[in-house]
Records
---
Amino acid sequence: MLLWENDLQILWPTLKLATTVTLLLLFIGTPIAWWLAHTSSWWKRPINAVVALPLVLPPSVLGFYLLLAMGPDGPIGKLTNFLGISSLPFTFAGLVVASVFYSLPFMVQPLLNAFELMGRRPLEVAATLRASPLDAFFSVAIPSALPGYLSAIILTFAHTLGEFGVILMVGGNIPGSTRVASVQIYDHVEAFDYASAHRLSLVMLGLSFIILLILYIWGPQSKKETE
Amino acid sequence: MKEICLNFNISWPSLDFMVDLTIPGQGVTAIFGPSGSGKTTLLRCISGLERVKNGHLSFNGEIWQNDKIYLPTHKRQLGYVFQEASLFSHLSVLNNLRYGQKRIDSSQRKVSLDHAIELLGISNLLDRNPSKLSGGERQRVAIARALATSPSLLLMDEPLASLDNKRKQEILPYLQKLHDELEIPIIYVGHSPEEISRLADHLVVMNSGKVEASGALNTMLNRLDINIGLGEERGVVLEGEIGEVDKQWNLARVDFSGGSLWTPNSKMAVGKKVRVRVLARDVSLAKVRPEQSSIQNQLLGQVNTIIDDERAGLALVSLSSGYSSIIARLTKRAINTLPINLGDKVWIQIKSVALIDG
């Protein structure tokens, strides 16, 4: 029974990580998606490719580079050093930074789709109704893109919840701080403790199913305005 | 200085847009022309949605754009009705109407929300979601939404284009009311001669990014030297008032400066100002007064101009009757054999007169 409680305790850093990363990505992903949806700059293509990179890159490759970048000689490491923050690898903050990179496309893509589907017309209409661009962004663009935000939040959250490779590379496996559910399951299997692996896997399976169910019940069921 | 002066030059691969135009800062100015002639671009330039370098625009003496000033769209006191209603789908009809209204200073609210709602007849739709409205209802809400910002200038980009004929007939009377009741100048892009004859006071004809002609509606319709592209719809609009109503035969007499015409209608009140539309194809000419003709609208007129029609074999004849002009479309053979010459006094027979609701 003690082990089972240990497993439940692992859910806390797991959920904390997913929540923190999702919140951070809302603020990072919105301007990126907005810019991608509205720019006609040539840079749109390479930026799009960089954002989508984590979709195809093996997590261990991404984790490896992030580990180097956050290390004492890497650019992020030098920055944290300069700012007087302790080095990021093998800390919870390090996990957050790595996950932000890893989950970026899951936030940006749905938002990009929502903004592109909306087009410029609602903003133009808002301008003719005396709304400044910033006013129109908050009063028209964001509310119109709400279904996109819901999918983006759920996908980002669920994806961060299940990540494994990147975490193992940059976070190690420190109990109570950087050990998350997916890594714990791996440890159980390594130790031939299939019963514990089963229990935790089942929790993760149920959690993921519920999250996706929410997405499909309240998500954007192609509720396109037929104007 | 009630004038709108504008000067815009754009070179796009698809369009060379060069417009230097002055139009009245009151009444309804219709922009007419084939699709792709730059009508929408003109409205976008006026609204500031299309930012054109080196453009100039002043509205009733107020500079909206010149070399130093560029007033962004949200600071221009205008209303814009797009081809598609473009209502905000996340807001109810009422909140769509309030969106613009609450963003203007209360001292500038000349058109109250209630007035806009009443004018467009949408009081029963306020709680609905825009997706639950018909096309005609949406467009009426969009017009009311624009009016609720008390604009100094209303821009309308083919507001009826996306609607079927029945819905068009449903909205036209509301547009007519705007024209008659509000003193807001309107620039109206349209390609239906019916809409334009009904609503416009001033007409601008555009073709491939340039203004072909611009002037008062009647003058423009009477001029045979400009090809407005009306085709079968070529005709004139006469302004007059109801002089008599014959209830027995359901006819109304419209008196205008060139005489009077009878038209089927018994609902009009005597003294009401109306417009009638006389199409060139419904007008025939006779050298002597036709007795025993079924056509009862006959006016004596004088031939001013004869010009070839865009269709081979046909010619357009411009005639004056009193102070009014009427255009007839005849075959060239008829003109040759009668014959009809410049300056001749002839009898103008008008087979059908369309009364445009006043």
Note: The radius of gyration of chain A is 20 Å.
---
Amino acid sequence: MQIKDKVKAFHDGALSRRDMLNGLAAIGVGVAMAPILPRTARAAGSDAIYFTWGGYDIPDLFKPYIEKHGEAPSFATFGGSEEGLTKMRAGYVVDVSHPCNQAVPRWVATGLFQTADPSRLSNWSDVIPSLYELEGNMADGRPYMVPMEWGQTSVTYRTDLVDLQGEPESWGILWDERYKGRLGSLASAADAWWVGAIYAGVDFENMASDEAFEKIAAVMREQRPLIRTYTDETTSLEQALASGEMVAAMTWNESAAALKNQGLPVKFAAPKEGALTWVCGAMIHKEAPNIDLAHDIIDSLISTDTGKFLIGEYGYGHSNAKSFEAFSEEDLAAKGLSSNPNDILAAGKFQIPQSQEFETRMNQEFENIKAGF
Amino acid sequence: MVDATSLSEPELTESRPRGGRLATLFRRSESLRGYALLSPTLAVMALAMCAPTAMMVALSFWVQSGFDITMTFTLDNYAKVFTNPIFEALFLRTLMISGTCALATVLISYPMAYYVAFHVHRRKLAWVIMMTLPFWTSYLLRVFSWKVVLGYNGAINSGLMSLGLISEPLEFLLYSPEAVIITLAHAWAAFAILPIYVSLEKIDRSLLEAAADLGDGAVARFLRITLPLSMPGVIAALLLIFIPTFGDFVTPALVGGPDGMMLANIVQKMFGKLNDWPLGSALAISMMIIVSIMCGGLIWVTRQIKERAI
């Protein structure tokens, strides 16, 4: 029976039960096979998994990898690195993941990760040493986290909607009553809580003390009624800023760069209290099934191709010193970057690793505050 | 069924003595055959429902310490669930949101189901399928489309602004408990329409004629016959919507904003960045028990009312 006949028979109510079941079975088999087919077709290629933040799951970061293996690795994404860590602790095995400096010692302590072998990374010699010589990162000259990008958490604000009244830029924009309900914030405490610390004037060295904790909690509570939404999706914040729904939001460099590239009147503030600064990078899972591909992923992430993309499109600093050669100092300064990362990182407030107890306490308190307590 | 087997049983065993003991038992026992037929479902239920639930129950009595879970029995997690004011407030909010949502959905769906059951005479199936159209797209997609509709520059706001009814976009439309209710009510509408439609369809039309003959007007007919007879569908719809929306976390996470967070969002965070699986399990199980009690209560109350009516 031809398909057309079948449809007509169905229409006329003349389709026999057997024909009907045959048709349904065919559809069922087809649907069930659909997810299997592309997989087997793909099995010949690479299947290494890169577990990262949404926004880094794009082929543009993997030019050298694609040249070598024909296609980008598989991606899995998380909204915040704590969420990623929890998934991996629950048994999700990936090849490479993407933590930031303040999380490194805790990630290492889980025993879920292994060091990378610098001799297998062709770009290693160009990586700026100050970015990997971090607390708890090196073991026998091998890095756990191979630094990829560095940047800031700061305020992206609409220059046409926020009136600074001649004052210097400040984190205070996000605590300004005048903009109640038109401010946005990142949802993860790994950014927001630290910003609270800066705004409350807490020294990062004393971050874990009870007094500092109360002080930060107080400013976060003060801010909560002003915030329209807390989100981990940077796109939501960018769209809200673009439409004027929000006048200012806590973001990373990336959001400001994306909005600026669209020609919107936004600025990535250099708060007088100092921006929050960090370095993030790639870490290999202890049981990574494709250890060679894992190194290729990392080598691609620290290549100048990737660096130029990250600096140009996302406005992040890169770990490869040569990536900056394509940009003039003015270009970089306009993006809030410099070819010497220390200029920027030290000028801001650089995150310091904390204990797991602190991390849990901070996350719980911040969730309580977000929920209105 | 029972009569049939008790009659045929002796006959079966006597006339066919061959086969092992097991086979005989199998042939003799109605319930064993029933379980055999059910076995694929039972296996799936045991593996995919009972085992994880049992694990959750076990987990809820243990303690999270750092990255590990200590297997010492404790009731601390439940103590926290019932004493921490944050859970109480979130519970009340969740109850308000899913309760309102269930009521609103039933109120909206009833007229639709009524129309199709009583006033559509041709191609009823097509109508029913049309009403379940929202279900043809993914749940997530529907939530995102509501984000577009309710958003600051969304369909409703720009429509009202171009009509000159408002000068500033309405901000409560998105990122609020109301947004969660609207989105959920739309997403679950089919679950209300279908049971209500079925119960309306079953109503014997001659009852309505009889009522009319005895002098009842349209409104009285509806209140005295249609509504009471469609109550099973309404109750089923209320439960079908209340139970799943009580545990929904995607919708509030996407359109709820800080004031639209529900209990399930906290549970999800407990298993995520809050890193406290035992407390999350205790919370989830408490939710399950409370919802079961509430639904059991609703069913009990309606049964009482029904019996009194008879």
Note: The mean pLDDT of chain B is 87.
